[in-house]
Design goal:
The chain is of the alpha+beta class. Helix content is 37%, strand content 10%. A five-stranded antiparallel beta sheet has the order 7-4-6-5-9. It is globular. 39% of the residues are buried.
Length: 467
């Protein structure tokens, strides 16, 4: 098989290796951040060296689509999205963690200010299966894919009848961090932290190695089957199913990296066999986790187990139903902000009490902040907002505005080669965003497909019915 040669530059080689599908590529202009005038190159595929040349050209914006396999995904949070804030980004990351994507790279996608969350994977997977898994993981947390709010790349594209000459493409997106495009890497507080491609790829390799690939593989199978009109039916003998879950729960942690899997099992068990929901289900999961063997030795989430349990409980309530009851989906919205606020306060209070009891409470305010932020896994802004929990009342610092609600650990990253000038509208960190490019201009004979409910209309994962 003859393959096109790659660029000689190592960064160019890495770029072409990751973004390797070069049919129906995209090209636009960087002159106007709000209107790149994207066009699709239809007649021929780009060559890898051409893609690298376009990426380096500050006057040109380049974009790509997905083939049958991919080693990444990205979530596009639009410039006007209600999720374009620290709390919203954290909610999306929690949802991705339920399917094994536990590390992401946030970047500002363009001068207009939207955010792309890149999800690197350790190896290539089926593109459609990954799209389905992400769609249902987000939906389980009441994060629904919608233009202008949150979009997923790859998308769950329409089915096309290839034997009739029909063909459909996945939606396309711009390449990251192009010179002149306004892209920049963001830190945990969503602040600019450099625009170097080498830094981006270093984070890429770290994130890819950290993903829970076994959990993702299982989620992709479930997501694909949930999207099918006639999904595969799985037979789960109830006694064996219950014994398997009880064995996992009773065994608990035996090594690091098992938290997501165990919380999923605990939430599913409480929902299916104990018929729990809402606060009762959350209390069961947290209590069971704290009492499980190996929690103290191997679980790295002692201070945020409550927050992680929220996401898994919500997923369980949407994927499972109490044994013997009618399969249905709970449409009641979950109070993310309220629960996250209470969880943040609990972590801060627990961290403060721990430091005092261990006689490790520093004297200087800067050291206090650093210690608390590290132990409570929260930001300086959140610490100031709840300052009454860790400072005497007579010395309490004024709270931050209510809009600052995130719990991201502070980071001090080298700003690198940040874009030095912006178009006339200026740099706005959480302002406008550049959407991904759809395939609506592709040949008109491609077919469409209505969204399928889970299990062909029933909203839930495969599960036996009856007492």
């Amino acid at each position: 098989m003859i393959t096109d040669p790659f660029p000689t530059d190592s960064l160019g080689q890495k770029l072409c290796q990751i973004f390797s599908y070069l049919w129906m590529s995209l090209e636009g202009s960087s002159e106007d951040a709000t209107a790149p005038n994207w066009r699709t190159i239809r007649n021929y595929p780009l060559r890898p060296r051409s893609l690298w040349a376009k990426w380096q050209d500050s006057a040109v914006l380049a974009g790509v689509r997905f083939g049958r396999e991919t080693e990444y995904a990205l979530i596009d949070i639009d410039k006007l999205s209600k999720f374009l804030n620290l709390t919203g980004i954290e909610a999306i990351c929690d949802a991705l963690a339920t399917i094994g994507i536990v590390r992401t790279i946030p970047i500002r996608s363009s001068w207009s200010g939207g955010i792309h969350l890149y999800c690197p994977l350790p190896e290539k997977v089926a593109t459609f299966d990954l799209a389905c898994a992400i769609k249902y993981a987000l939906a389980a947390q009441d994060i629904h894919l919608e233009a202008g709010q949150v979009e997923s790349f790859p998308n769950v594209k329409a089915f096309a009848k290839g034997w009739l000459g029909q063909f459909s493409e996945y939606n396309g997106h711009r390449l990251p961090l192009q010179p002149g495009g306004g892209g920049v890497i963001l830190n945990g507080d969503l602040q600019p932290a450099g625009a170097q491609l080498a830094t981006f790829f270093a984070q890429w390799d770290f994130c890819a190695a950290a993903q829970d690939f076994d959990l993702l593989t299982e989620a992709m199978t479930q997501g694909r089957d949930s999207h099918r009109k006639k999904p595969k039916q799985r037979n789960h003998p109830l006694d064996e199913w219950r014994r398997d879950w009880e064995l996992d729960i009773n065994t608990g942690w035996t090594d690091h990296g098992q938290t997501n899997s165990l919380l999923k099992t605990m939430a599913g068990y409480g929902r299916v066999f104990l018929r729990l929901e809402g606060d009762d289900l959350h209390d069961f999961v947290v209590t069971t986790a704290l009492q499980a063997p190996g929690f103290e030795d191997f679980c790295s989430h002692h201070y945020d187990i409550g927050r992680k349990a929220i996401a898994w409980c919500q997923a369980a309530e949407r994927y499972y139903w109490p044994l013997g009851s009618e399969a249905k989906r709970d449409k009641d919205a979950f109070d993310f902000n309220g629960e996250r606020s209470l969880d943040a306060q609990a972590r801060i209070k627990a961290a403060f009490e721990h430091l005092v009891q261990q006689a490790e409470w520093p004297q200087l305010i800067t050291q206090q902040l650093k210690k608390l932020a590290e132990l409570a896994r929260t930001s300086f802004a959140t610490l100031y907002k709840y300052a009454h929990l860790w400072r005497p009342a007579e010395r309490c610092v004024m709270s931050q505005p209510a809009s600052v609600t995130a719990d991201s650990p502070p980071q001090t990253n080298d700003p690198g080669d940040l874009p030095k000038t912006a178009p006339s509208k200026g740099i706005t960190h959480l302002g406008q965003n550049t959407k991904g490019v759809t395939n609506e201009n592709l040949p008109s004979n491609q077919s469409t497909q209505e969204e399928r409910g889970v299990q062909g209309g029933k909203k839930g994962f495969p599960q036996a019915e009856g007492a």
